[in-house]
Amino acid sequence: MNQRTRLASILLCLALVGGACVAAAQSAGGSKGRASALYEKALVEFNLGQTRAAYIHLKNALLQDPFLLSAHLLLGKIYIQLGQGDKAEKELLIADGLGAHQSLTLIPLARAYLLQGKAEQLLAELFPLGTLVEEDAELLALRGQASLQLEQFYDAQRSFTQAWEKNPNNVSAVLGRIHVLLLKGDLNEADFYARRAVELAPENPRAWFLKGTLTRGLGDTASALRDFERAVQALPAYLPAQIARVSALLELGRLEAAQAAAEETIKLYPRDPRTLYLKAVVQARRQAMDEARETLKQTEALIFQLPRELIEGHPPTLLLAGMVTYSLKHWAQATAYLRLFLEKFPDTVGPRTLLAQIYLQRDQSEEAVKLLEPALGLAPGDQQVLSLLAEANMRERQYVKASNYLQQAAAAGDDNLVLRTQRAVNQFGLGRKAQAIEELGAVFESNPEYENAGATLVVVDLKERRYDEAVAAARTLLQGSPDNLSYLNLYGVAQLAAGQPEAARWAFNLALALDWRFVPAQLNLAELELREKRPEAARERLRLVLARNPDQVSAMLMLARAFDQQGDHEQARDWAQRAVGADPGAVPVAVYLTDLLLKMKRSEDALQAAQSIELRAADPDDLALLAALSRAYIANGRRATAQVVLTRGSSLAGYNAASLLEIATLQRQAGDLNGAIWSLEKAVSGQPRFLPTRLKLGEIYSEVGKFPQAEELALALVKDFPKEPYGEHLLGTIARAQGKDAQALEHFTRALKMRESPVLAVRTYETLRAVQGNGAAIDFLKRWVDKHPDDEIARQALAEGLVRGGRTNEAKEIYQRVLARTPDNATALNNLALVYAREGGPKAIEFARKAHALVPAPEITDTLGWVLVQGGQVEEGLNYLREAQSRAAAAPGVGYHIAYALERLGRKDEALRELKILFQKESDFPERDAAVALRRQLEPRNAVPDGRRDAGLDPVAE
Q1: 593 and which of 269, 576, 639, 687 could share a cystine (Cβ 3.0–4.6 Å)?
Q2: pLDDT bucket at 180, cuts 50 / 70 / 90
């Protein structure tokens, strides 16, 4: 069962329970208020270290309101403290489904996965957000631990290095750094960091365990044993340290102590196969072979009790199962386990030698040779591998080979047109498009009669928007086969793409003159009519096609588009759903239906449509499908899931610039800036002259503070497009991000002179406000709006500027005019609520409730909570503010609003704690001065004068 299915099941159960709760609430009244009050009590107890009391309050809160997001989040963290990863995962997935902000679920969910041995799931689903350095470092270190569990050492090394680079003082990053150095064999530097780790975290069992592992690697087993014992003292239940302690005792020859330590470990983990296997090893070292065999049988019995999917999905358990069954000479089971392990990890030598020995035991010497020859490449000079290869070759009567292996133990083809074409197509799939087109062109030019290369070349040229070249290649094809309907149609498609509709029409009509039943030409004529904004003509043609071909899915889809073009969304949806019914696996239909439903603001139906096609599609990795699925996830607040899907899409897109640009845009919407940068860098490296990716990459570089890279891109744009505003716009964005507002204003002004654009006008206004003040900026924007009366973007910005300047009556007039035209404009309602709140008017709550009912986005939920608090309804307001924080944890203003509400309720310690967390984030926000003042009021002796981060104030994780 995948995560979406599990989450759907959980939320269905919640919905059923919620129905009962709602009914009870209607009779008792105020259940949401009681739930919020219980949550607040739980939070107090949790911060005091009273986990059990907090747990009870949370369970009671969820009985009152099963959808209380903040309660699910806190309960998930409590389950992690208790080591109950499965229960923690359930609560965190519910929180994610209810719209929790990723930063609140990401790290706890990673820990829950690790507790359950779900390393693969962690790596597939959870990625750094790129917002807070500490959180990114922690998650990267957790990803490194997951890679280590899977024995993916390169990936582990990369993750740990990235964590270290993010924050060298993060304990998890330091421990990860030690792993990296151990993997590189740099024991001396690793020893330095191991000492640093135990200084930073003297009670951290993993720090002592790693220090002991390193000390043992340096040959000092006695000192290593002391480190392992320190780790066990810090946390007796830390199994890796217990196992290492037994192993060190065995190495030192202290067999009785090893036996006692093994028995102690079994008491802690009586049902863990690893502890029993450890006991068997000790017994074998003590020459108690019968006892060791009996213990191995017990170990095997425990393994067999585990679900098969757990054994197969958890590499350490899978390998242990292979070793145990090998030791018991249960060859069939051992073979199955070891084969499966090698399928997952083909580059591991040890399991290969075990399996090869089984093959030799069963007189399968040829299989042993096949298995061992790659092992020799992985471990050149390995004496055991060479010896086994010699044995296998002798059994195969390959005596010369056997002799060579024993001596070592003691002391390319023909190229053709088909292959060249296939290689070119493969190059295109890898994103090496210039090479692909060059190779296809060379093949077709030298052999025009090889039409497969020519048709492929036309398709490749069309994908790359090389329309003139596509037309030329299609014309050459037609000259060789003038009566070929497919080539005529392809020629028409190329002409249509090249902007020659009449030439395209001629080709499609000629194809129909040759065969009036040729459906592709009919569909392309309908496409031409849709492009010419003639939906009625297209509808008539498509109805005739469907009369003769009632199951023609493409015709149904185009008919849906025709209705959509006329504004009849219900008819469009009906025909799109008919198309899905005719071909449930048709990806283009599902993509269109998903986007249509999103346009109709039916986000849940859109997600259902996208998920259903994902299950049925012949290619669930289709990029258009993944993009549509991501749009649906984002629309439903499932940004973390969207990030996972988009990371997959970026990998599959190769170096296709247009596809990567779409993916990067969605990654940015989903909050994955690092993922967006990775996608765009791939696109630029594959197609450096594709302008949109360069522009987008420069913007995101600037956004994340990579200014040298952004400036290099901007200067290249100025050079390549001296008469366009692209480079100046990007240079202004960079300067603004660096705080160089006067310089930014110069760049934006030059860009605006090159091309009048609403976006550039607003950027100029914002920068002008920073340089010359609000008055000058408003005057500029007023002149712009007078000159461009249809520019709604600038008009909204003007209203916000008027509010900032205290000219609320003028701002209200603008918002009221907007609402007169679009009464369901949630943004205008929200902003109008804030205007009335500044004035202290009673209408603030009314407008905020209307906005929230239309779009319960985090920023609108924050507004509702804030105006309720300011209006004296503090407890209800706090409930909404908690919800907003759960869905947008990175927004610092919400934290201040919560602190203010807590202070109003007399909960001053909690208010101060909220402010400490706020200032730890080093984020700027409009109410920072008010937050500093509130902190001074609550902590007058230790107030931080400028509200900057205070290194002595540690955040409290809530």
Answers
A1: 576
A2: low
What's the CA gap between 490 and 408, in Å, rounded? 62
Tokens of 189: 């530097």
Mean pLDDT check: name the lowest of 433-442, 509-518, 826-835: 433-442
DSSP conformation letters of 29-72 = --HHHHHHHHHHHHHHHHHTT-HHHHHHHHHHHHHH-TT-HHHH
- Note whether 360 and 341 are within 8 A (CB): no
Measured over the CA atoms of residue 298, residue 304, residue 307 and residue 313, the dihedral's sign is: positive
pTM above 0.70, yes or no: no
Tell me how far CA of residue 209 lies from CA of 60, 170, 245, 270, in angstroms. Answer: 40, 17, 9, 22
Classify residue 587 as exposed, middle or buried by CB count within 10 Å of its CB (0-12, 13-18, 19+): buried
The sign one gets for the Cα dihedral 145, 147, 148, 153 is negative
**Residue 529 identity:** E
Indicate the pLDDT class of residue 402, thresholds 50, 70 and 90. Answer: low
What beta strand segments (E) does 659-806 contain?
Answer: none
Nearest to 467 by CA among 498, 444, 441: 498
Count Cβ atoms below 10 Å from residue 49 Cβ, excluding itself: 8
- What residue type is 537 in one-letter code? A
Spell 210-246 as b/e; 16+ CB within 10 A means b: bbbbbbbeeeebeebbbbbbbbbebbeebbebbbbbb
| 626 CB-near residues (< 8 Å, 6+ apart) | 645, 646, 648, 649, 652
Alpha helices in 447-534 (DSSP H): 451-463, 467-480, 485-497, 501-514, 519-531
Other beta carbons within 10 angstroms of residue 93's beta carbon come to 22
Residue whose C-alpha is closest to residue 567's, from 525, 600, 605, 528:
600
Cβ atoms within 10 A of the Cβ of 365, count?
A: 19
Three-class DSSP category at 512: helix
**Residue 116: DSSP 8-state:** T
Nearest-angstrom CA–CA distance, 134 and 805: 37
